[in-house]
Amino acid sequence: MDRFADRMTARGPTLETDRETWTGSLHIVDLPSADAARKFVEQEPYNRAGLFERHVIRRFKNLLGRTMWEFRGGAADPRFLVIAHLRAAASEHAGRADLTALPREDIIVHGELLAPDDATPAGLVVALQAPRREAVEAIGQAALDEHYDIEILDWEFGGRR
Description:
Blueprint: E1 8-15, E2 22-29, H1 34-43, H2 45-48, E3 59-62, E4 79-86, E5 107-114, E6 121-129, H3 133-143, E7 148-155
Antiparallel strand pairs: 1-2, 1-7, 3-5, 4-6, 4-7, 5-6
């Protein structure tokens, strides 16, 4: 993974609510093509060890313009990853999500998700720091409409830089 360090926007494990048990991993890395992303997944060490049941590959459009290493928030509050999957039938009618309720200083990474091969809109992602999961759930419900399936995962920074 170190050879991709200069192209990483974020990385780290997703966790159970106990914040001890790993459930998966996030890598936001700038790669030249969908095929390169598939190859990255094939070579990812935890994937090679057979730890993951499934993979989701998406293009990422960085709406915040920074990496997780540029985030200046404190370490006291837990971190979460919110993935808003755009429902297939909703892609033409979905409104733009309003994430203005999130204080910028609490947002670690924020971006649009696009299909890997044709860049069709696929959803949104935001990694943030918040005092409690309930606060994240409330923001997600207020900001995203019925066109999205929301997944909230406990998350923490991973890797080294």
